Amino acid sequence: MSTSAISGTTTSGTSSTTTTGTTLNTSSSSTGPVTFSGLASGLDTTSIVSKLMAVNEEPVTALQNQETASTNTLQAYNEVNTLLNTLQTAVSAMDLTSAVNTTQATTSSGAPFIATSANAFTGTYNISVSQLAQAQLDVTGGYASQTASEFGDGSITINNQTIDVNSSNNSLQGLTAAINAETGTTGVSASIIDDGTATDPYHILLTGQDASTTFTVSSSLTDGNTAIPFSTGTPTSTTGEYASQTDSEFGTGTITINNKTIDVTASNNSLSGLESAINAETGTTGVSASISDNGPTSDPYSLVLTGQNLTVSSSLTNSSGSTIPFITGTTTTTGGNITEVQTPQQAKLTVDGVAVVSNTNTVTDAIPGITLNLNAVSATSASSSGSSPTYETSQLDVTPDTSTLETNINTFVSAYNAVIKWINAGVSASATALNSSSSTAQTNPAYLSDPTDAQLSQILIGDPAISSLKNDLQNLISGSANSSSSAEGLNNLNSIGITSNLDGTLSVNTTTLQNALTNNFTGVTDLLAGNGNVGSEGVMQQFNSYLLDETSPLNGIYAQEQQTNQTNQTNLASQITTKKQLLSQEETTMNQQFTNMELMISTLNSQSTYMDSLYSLAGISDSSSSSSSSSSSS
User: Fold this and answer.
1) Separation between Cα atoms, residue 206 and residue 170, nearest integer Å
2) Residue 268, SS3?
3) 544 Cβ contact list (under 8 Å, min separation 6)
C-alpha cells in the first residue's frame, strides 16, 4: 500500500504521512539521498551510522598512521644523513697528507713584506728588499668635465691597438671605458682622477698591468680641422726659423703662455732673449723654452716651447706697426697632453743571498709554497763612500701549523659527538615516554605531525641500519692506522688524547694533544692521513672512505631508505584512496537502509491508525470486544 493511499492525501511529487504528531516529507526532485534520523522509530540513526562508520574507518586510520610513520622515518634518516655529511666534511680536512701537513709563515719584526704559506716546507729564510715593483703611470692634462665632449673624432692607439673615438665616447668617461674594454689586449687600464683644483680638475690616469708592461699613446683626433692632442710626450710648439739667435726678430709687445703675459721689448726680442724671458716664468706657466739648431741652412734657429696644456698667443708689432707672428707652426704630432709620471720597474729582493726579480710586489715563485707581499724597501746599513748600499735582511720562519690542525681535530670530535648524541637522544626519549602516564598511542613519535629531534631519533631505535652505523663509527674510533702509517708510537686516536666516554661520545685531552702536535707533528699527521706510501692509510682516511659510502646519494643509508619510502608512500596512498571510496559508498548505503526502515515504520504506523479509525466507525472498540470475549467464555 502506498504512502499516499494510507495518508489519504496526494500532491504532485510529494507524499505526506502522519504518525503520532510527526509528518515525514520526501521530495522526488531531491538531488541526493534524504535521511530520517529516528522520526518514525525514535532511534538516533545519525549517531548509529556515525559510530558504525568510526569502527569501519579504523583500517584507514591505521593506514594513515603508517603513512605518517613512513614520512617521519624518512625525516629521521635525513637528519642522520645531514649529521654524517657534517662529519665527513670535518674528516675530509684531515684525510690527505697535504691537508694535515700545513705550515705557517712568521716574519721578524719590521719586515718589509707579509708572508703566507700554502703547505711550504719548513725552514728559515733571510730576505732583503732593495726595490719595489711599480707599473708605468701616464696622466693627461686637466679637463673641466668628465662627461662633456673633449676629444673630437678619430682614434687613439695604445700599444698598437687602435680605439675608435666618436661622439658616443669622446668624453673622459667614454674614453676611459673604451680604453678599459681593450685592457686584455693592451695591458693598460684607465681611470679618472680629480686633483681638487677649481679649474680643469679631471685627468685620465693610464696604468700598465705590471712592471713588464710599457706603453705609448698616439692619436689622430680632430675637431673639424683642428688637431686635438692626446698622445704620450710633452706638448711642444715651435716658432718659425731665423738666421740669428741674438738679432731683434720680434719687435715689441707681449706674448701670453698659459694665461701668463710676458713683455717683449728691445732688450729681449731676440730668440735668446725670449728664451730667457719664458724660462723665467716656467714655475708659473709650466712651459720651458729652448733654441733648436736645424742645421746648415740660411735660417737654422727656432724657439721650441715645451709644457703641459700649452697655449700660446702674442701681440707683437714692428716699428711700422705691422704684426709679427710668433708661433708659425702647430703642436707637433708627437707632442700631446699625456705625461709619464711613473716609469715601470721590477721588484728586486734577495732570498738567502740569491737575487730575485718580480714584475709585481706579490712574489710567488721565490720560495715554493710561500707568497711574499712586498710593502717596503729594507733598511740599509752604513756603507763606505761610493759603494752600493747594503740592505738589511729580515727572517722568515716556516713552521708546522699546529693550531690549524688542533682546530680541525676538535671540529671532527664535535661533529662525531653530534651523531652519537642524536642517536642517544632517542633512547632517553623512549625511557621518558615509558615512565609517563600517557598511552602508547599518544606517545608513539612515529604518528606525530611534527616530532622533535629526540622523537625522530626514538623512531629509529632498533633500526638495523642505525645500530650498524653506531657500531661502525665506534670501531673506527677504537681502530688504529695502518702499520706503515704510524710513527713513534702514535697508532690510534687515544695516543693523541682522544678517548671514548661511556655514552659513546669522545673527549679531547688538550694537553696530550698539544704535546703530540708540538713534539711529534709528523707522527700526528701520519696517524691521521698516512705518510703517502703505498698501503699507508691513516685513521681519517678510513673514516672518509666509510662516510663517503654511507652518505652516497645513490646507495647511502638515506638514499636506500628514500627509495623504500617512496614505494611505501605510493602503496599506502593508493590503499587509503581505495578504502575511502568504499567507506563513502558504505555510508551512503547504510543511510539509505535506515531511511527505508523509517519509511516502513511510518507506513505501518499509518496503517495501524487507519485500522483504529475503521473500528471506531463500526462501533467496535477494544473494550467492547474485550467484554464480548468475557461473556462468551462464561
Assistant:
1) 16
2) coil
3) 88, 91, 92, 95
Residue pLDDT, tens place only, 142-198: 889 999 998 888 999 999 999 999 999 999 999 999 999 999 999 999 999 999 999
pLDDT of residue 18: 38
Give the per-residue pLDDT at 402.
93
Residues pairing with 192 in the sheet:
204
d(CA 601, CA 604): 5
Count CB-CB contacts under 10 A for residue 254. Answer: 14
How many residues can be counted in the chain? Answer: 634
Cα 444 to Cα 170: distance, rounded to the nearest angstrom: 78
CA pair distance 525, 103, nearest whole angstrom:
12
Give the model confidence (pLDDT) of 485-531 as tens digits. 455 568 899 999 999 999 999 999 999 999 999 999 988 998 998 87
d(CA 578, CA 569): 14
Closest by alpha carbon to 245, among 199, 303, 183, 327? 303
C-alpha–C-alpha distance, residues 73 and 572, integer Å? 15
Domain 137-228 in CATH 3.30.200: no
Domain residue ranges in the chain: 76-98+402-558, 103-133+346-400, 137-228, 240-319
Q: How far is 428 from 111, CA to CA, in rounded Å?
A: 58
**Could you tell me which residues come within 8 angstroms of residue 413 by beta carbon, excluding any fewer than 6 positions away?**
498, 506, 507, 508
Q: What is the DSSP string of 515-548?
A: HHHHH-HHHHHHHHH--SSTT---HHHHHHHHHH
Q: Minimal CA–CA distance to 313: which of 283, 280, 287?
A: 287
402-435 and 58-92 are packed helices; what angle lies between their axes, rounded to 10 degrees? 160
All residue ranges of the chain with pLDDT < 50 are: 1-32, 329-335, 439-442, 484-485, 624-634
pLDDT of residue 28: 40
The 3 state secondary structure assigned to 326-395 is CCCCCCCCCCCCEEEEECCECEEEEECCEEEEECCCEECCCCCCEEEEECCCCCEECCCCCCCCEECCEE
Report the first-to-last Cα separation within the chain, whole angstroms: 40
pTM: 0.60
